[in-house]
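As a warm-up, study this chain.
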Amino acid sequence: MAVLALAIVSLLLLLLVFWVWSRTRRLGRRLDSLTRGQDDKDLSKVLDAHLDKVFAVSSEVDELTVRTAVAESNLRRSFQRIGLVRFNPFEDTGGNQSFALALLDANGDGLVLSSLHSRAGTRVYAKSVNGGRSETALSEEEAEAVRQAMAGTGPRTTAGA
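Now compare it with the structure written out below.
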């Protein structure tokens, strides 16, 4: 009877050893998958290397956030609203070669360039614009160019003044 009891206990211990061995193999494979590409396979070193990479990426993201904010700030001051009106102010010239060009930033600040073309020559004028309005009087074409720029509509040609 004692032999039978020892045989059963031995069998149970053998099953327990097999179970521990298979569990250890699974854990070993899992450790290998976590540390793949690393020679020393020290999980703490692998995790430290990954954390260093995470902190480096986080630092780069912070730097890019700052650079993006600066770029967006600069972009608001760049010409992004443009209006162009071509027209013929004089009867003796053709082809709508005169124009009013409004160049404005996001706040509606900028300038209006006007070119009046005639047979005798071409004259160019510039007027400042603040908040979509000019302190000096604008011609009908200049005012239309500013309206286009503020509305974001495209260029157009008028029949004449």
